[in-house]
Design goal:
The chain has about 240 residues and is mainly alpha-helical. It folds into two domains: about 70 residues, Arc Repressor Mutant, subunit A, CATH 1.10.10; about 150 residues, Four Helix Bundle (Hemerythrin (Met), subunit A) (Up-down Bundle). About 70% of the residues lie in helices and about 5% in strands. The protein contains ten helices and three strands; from the N terminus they run αβααββααααααα. A three-stranded antiparallel sheet has the order 1-3-2. α5 runs antiparallel to α6. The longest helix has 25 residues. It starts with a helix and ends in a 6-residue tail after the last helix.
Length: about 240
């Protein structure tokens, strides 16, 4: 028999994936009774899962009113993007300083996988391709994996969850990510050459361009467009 702890993890995992992928629209009310029936678990398992998601910034707890999927604003998008850049740059600096040959080999291998996948996926389809997202995430993680500060890496994992959710929402509004692999190629070359200043400069430029693309898509959209884009991606069971 599954314990409450394991059931909580199962519910958390599914809701986490659905929130990040946009299958649960921003602002959607997550009713504990309905979720307990849907996942065939106890109310306590659902509440624990929602509490964890609240700590991750994906869900907001309203006293006496339950839980809702976190909303999104242009200001939040900017602040999260800024935090991601600051943390990634700090981790990149440490990786370049501490990385050994194994790190270099993994960076080359993961970037090769990502570049190959990217060449086969049209920019408009990138955010919908599981293979694209998996290789992109693996490459970015490999690039900073030699960072010797585990607290920084944990902070990075936590903030990337919210960043990925923003990417899904903005992609649904028409934001593209053209030539991402080409932009990162120069970062990889600088990192492997141990040219920290250049690698950091290129990383910041890439992040700034990406943020500008997402903000342009978000800020040029009416609230009704944003809601429609999210509802179009929402799973039927969450509508």
């Amino acid at each position: 028999m599954n314990s409450v702890g394991s059931l909580t993890l199962d519910v958390h995992k599914q809701l986490h994936e659905d929130l990040v992928a946009g299958r649960i629209p921003a602002g959607y009310r997550l009713k504990t009774v309905n979720l307990a029936k849907q996942f065939d678990v106890s109310l306590s398992a659902v509440r624990e899962a929602l509490t964890k998601l609240s700590a991750e910034g994906l869900v907001v707890a309203h006293p006496q009113r339950g839980f809702r999927a976190a909303s999104i604003s242009a200001e939040e998008l900017k602040q999260v993007a800024d935090a991601v850049m600051i943390i990634d740059v700090a981790c990149l600096r440490r990786s370049i300083a501490a990385g050994d040959k194994n790190w270099e080999d993994e960076v080359r291998r993961s970037f090769s996988d990502f570049a190959e996948t990217s060449s086969k996926v049209h920019a408009a389809e990138a955010s919908h391709s599981e293979r694209y997202r998996a290789t992109y995430s693996a490459f970015r993680s490999a690039l900073v994996s030699a960072c010797d500060n585990q607290v920084l890496l944990e902070m990075r994992r936590n903030i990337l969850v919210r960043s990925e959710r923003h990417e899904h929402i903005c992609a649904a509004l028409g934001a593209l990510r053209p030539r991402v692999a080409a932009e990162y190629e120069a970062v990889v070359e600088a990192a492997l050459a141990r040219d920290t200043a250049r690698a950091v400069r290129l990383m910041k430029t890439r992040y700034s361009r990406n943020t500008a693309r997402f903000l342009a898509a978000f800020e040029s959209s009416e609230p009704s467009d944003i809601a429609a884009a999210e509802n179009a991606r929402a799973d039927q069971k969450y509508r």
